Amino acid sequence: MPHTQSIPMVFTFVGADQPGLVETLSRTVAAQGGNWLESRMSELAGQFAGIVKVEVAPHQAGALRAALLALSNQQLSVLVAQGPGAPSPIALRTLRLSILGNDRPGIVREVAHALAARHINVCEMDTSIRSAPMSGAPLFEAVARIQVPKTLDLAELRTQLNKIADALTVDIDLQASPE
User: Fold this and answer.
1) Can you tell me whether residue 140 is helix, strand or coil?
2) If one looks up domain 3-80 in CATH, what number appears?
3) What pLDDT shows up at residue 73?
4) Strands 47-56, 7-16: parallel, antiparallel or unpaired by DSSP?
5) C-alpha to C-alpha distances, 159 to 113, 155, 162, 173, nearest whole angstrom
6) Fold: same for 3-80 and 92-176
7) Which of the two ends of the chain, N or C, has the fewest CB atoms closer than 10 A to its terminal CB?
8) Superfamily of domain 92-176, CATH level 4
9) What kind and span of H or E run contains 99?
10) How far apart, in whole angstroms, are the C-alpha atoms of residue 103 and residue 76?
């Protein structure tokens, strides 16, 4: 399918983890003339969830949306985004943010608040809990790709993140990210 004659569509889904979910989704996309471009999918607590970007001819978009939403009859929750997001009017740079420390409530909330207060966009974020090597205590780990306005004072951001790190007893690292 030529990229110039198609439009992007993004949908999310969640359902009980079982064989055949990805096949059902991909068959639905293909049956409506869509092309699967990108996706992130994962099993968490017995549920399989993901976000998928497809492209489809403009005249097929309504049919694809309806076919995806009809999957709710198969115990699969699907949400289809309305259209492409607006491009950012400001110049941005991409950074990598990583967090590691003993698990405790509030880590994501505090860091997300500091980022949002500075108009920083979280593009990707992966979090997990693993056992500490020596003690076996639960360690929280997060890695995020963030977009920061080029005019943002990075020293001030680092100072704020260090305050959060000290208060929560975690390590927070901020570095340039290869795109």
Assistant:
1) strand
2) 3.30.70.260
3) 81
4) antiparallel
5) 14, 6, 5, 11
6) yes
7) C
8) ACT domain (3.30.70.260)
9) strand 92-102
10) 31
Distance, C-alpha 113 to centroid of its chain? 17
Distance CA 101, CA 170 (A): 4
Residue 120's closest CA among 164, 159, 150, 162?
150
pLDDT digits (tens, 9 = 90+) for 31-88: 999 999 999 999 999 999 999 999 999 999 999 999 999 998 888 999 999 666 666 6
Average pLDDT over the chain reads 91
The predicted model gives 95-122 an average pLDDT of 95
Residue 96, classified by CB atoms within 10 Å of its CB into exposed (0-12), middle (13-18) or buried (19+), is middle
Each domain of the chain, given as residue ranges in start order, spans 3-80, 92-176
